[in-house]
RNA sequence: GGAGGAGUGCCCGAGUGGCUAAAGGGGGCGGACUGUAAAUCCGCUGGCUAAGCCUACGUUGGUUCGAAUCCAACCUCCUCCA
């Protein structure tokens, strides 16, 4: 598509120059025209998130970073929470229908997502980013009215040509009308935002291309509006895996699903080869600084990784949490746990009730099950207060906790915890 | 509508009556080496109140002392024919 990371000299708008140089652009419906529009004045742009989980994860950071840049450069972001579309389920590139979500679940998920958005974008004031829920208009439609107003602008022929549904059709897996109409709903969202807020740009993941195109086309056919679509690339790590999955699961943005400390550690553990790319995509350091850090060699790259981790954590969890995570990490890895805030807290009664080492490993999240913890211990990967413990029957006793009622626990070389009983 | 083939653990993929919690590979985790990196080598990789027990080879039944393996029905996918 569009070469990422290369400054585009012929572009007039600062916004596109920055996005391109950061590597945040994958495809655009009309790069030149969008460039002209962005150069001419403030543009309102939106990105939507369905309520499929109680928290966003690092994959969502790409469109969110794009929105941050746009806001920073004088444009206006709108974030659409998919309270309406989540009731349908996006079939894009999936071979099976998503399980339908209950209203209650959707509401809970939206609350969790909202929290991260509020951190990532500035919602204050006249020019602040706006948060809207598409249930607001989608639930108002009456069926016949909807079909007459919008159905005429979509042809099934065209809808079936999108890659996002083709694999499902090719595999002869059922694609229900419910799911098939998802792209219509997203298209209507775009038009609705154009009407209500003069929004003319939609940003999304590369899997959203088909849905975005539908909106752009609806805008043109429906009322002659020129709308734009921009997708961000799908990020894979140097080893080829989809980014953001760890043994413990997704890398969540919500602090209750993944602690800022663990979040910071995720970035700290970036492979060497990914450091330049991640600095560009996930931090807002000036490019000359990004380049300087990217050129560091060997062990020196560790400094760049720390900066990367602290920068991203600052954006997602705030400066205070980031500084804290950095300090916790430094102290834990240096083996100086004194005067340190715990990474985990457990009630003191747990000790009296009798707490096994395996149970503790599961509680802290270093193992997914008792058996998993057992294997970890038997493999010699567990340290309790810096001493290897390979007996899976080991119990935690008051003798293990120091003056501060805390103990340190490590699983392997990179996962460390300071657990306080209180 | 007819004929044939296939459905195995996170993924790919062997396995045609007991020795199969299921070969091999990938991925993941741990150990050694390092720099909380990569590469390499080694180990582990269903659950539990753990020398025992439970769950598992598309689903449900059946045959058998014993089934991922045999039989029946059903579901799904693939190929060929109409």
Structure, described:
There is one protein chain. With 422 residues, this protein is of the alpha/beta class. It folds into 3 domains: 14-232, HUPs (Rossmann fold), CATH 3.40.50; 259-334, Tyrosyl-Transfer RNA Synthetase (Orthogonal Bundle); 344-421, Roll (Structural Genomics Hypothetical 15.5 Kd Protein In mrcA-pckA Intergenic Region, Chain A). The protein contains 19 helices and 15 strands. It has helices at residues 14-22, 31-40, 61-72, 103-120, 135-138, 143-150, 156-159, 163-170, 177-180, 182-197, 209-223, 260-268, 275-282, 287-294, 301-317, 319-334, 349-353, 357-364, 370-378; strands spanning 27-28, 44-50, 76-82, 130-133, 199-205, 228-232, 245-246, 249-250, 344-346, 355-356, 382-384, 387-388, 395-396, 406-411, 415-421. Helix 15 (301-317) crosses helix 16 (319-334) and helix 18 (357-364) packs across helix 19. The longest helix is centred in the N-terminal third of the chain and has 18 residues, at 103-120. It starts with 13 loop residues before the first helix and ends with a strand. The model is unreliable at 3-7 (pLDDT under 50).
């Amino acid at each position: 598509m569009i070469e990422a990371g290369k400054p585009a000299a012929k572009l007039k708008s600062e916004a596109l120059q920055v996005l391109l140089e950061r590597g945040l652009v994958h495809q655009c419906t009309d790069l030149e025209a969008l460039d002209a529009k962005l150069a001419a004045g403030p543009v309102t742009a939106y990105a939507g998130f369905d309520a499929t989980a109680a928290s966003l994860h690092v994959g969502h950071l790409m469109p969110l970073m794009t929105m941050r840049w746009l806001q920073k450069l004088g444009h206006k972001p709108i974030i659409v929470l998919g309270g309406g579309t989540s009731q349908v389920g996006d079939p894009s590139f999936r071979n099976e229908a998503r399980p339908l979500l209950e209203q209650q679940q959707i509401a809970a998920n939206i609350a969790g997502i909202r929290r991260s958005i509020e951190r990532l974008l500035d919602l204050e004031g006249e020019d602040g980013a706006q948060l809207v829920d598409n249930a607001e208009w989608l639930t108002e439609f009456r069926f016949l009215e909807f079909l007459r107003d919008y159905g005429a602008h979509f042809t099934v022929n065209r809808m079936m040509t999108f890659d996002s549904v083709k694999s499902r059709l090719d595999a002869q897996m059922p694609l229900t009308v419910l799911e098939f109409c998802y792209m219509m709903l997203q298209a209507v969202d775009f038009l609705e935002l154009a009407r209500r807020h003069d929004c003319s740009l939609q940003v999304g993941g590369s899997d959203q291309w088909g849905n975005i195109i539908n909106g752009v086309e609806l805008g043109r056919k429906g009322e002659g509006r020129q709308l734009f679509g921009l997708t961000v690339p799908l990020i894979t790590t140097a080893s080829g895996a989809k980014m953001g999955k760890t043994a413990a699961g997704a890398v969540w943005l919500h602090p209750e699903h993944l602690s800022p400390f663990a979040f910071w550690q995720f970035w700290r553990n970036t492979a060497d080869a990914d450091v330049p790319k991640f600095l560009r995509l996930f931090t807002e350091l000036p490019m000359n600084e990004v380049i300087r850090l990217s050129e560091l060699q060997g062990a020196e790259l560790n400094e760049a990784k720390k900066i990367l981790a602290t920068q991203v954590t600052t954006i997602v969890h705030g400066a205070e949490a980031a500084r804290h995570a950095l300090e916790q990490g430094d102290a834990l890895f240096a083996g100086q746990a004194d005067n340190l805030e715990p990474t985990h807290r457990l009630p003191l009664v747990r000790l009296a009730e009798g707490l096994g080492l395996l149970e503790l490993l599961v509680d802290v999240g270093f193992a997914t099950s008792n058996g998993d913890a057992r294997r970890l211990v038997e493999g010699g990967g567990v340290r309790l207060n810096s001493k290897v413990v390979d007996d899976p029957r080991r119990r935690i006793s008051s003798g293990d906790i120091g003056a501060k009622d805390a103990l340190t626990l490590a699983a392997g070389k990179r996962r460390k915890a300071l657990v306080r009983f209180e």
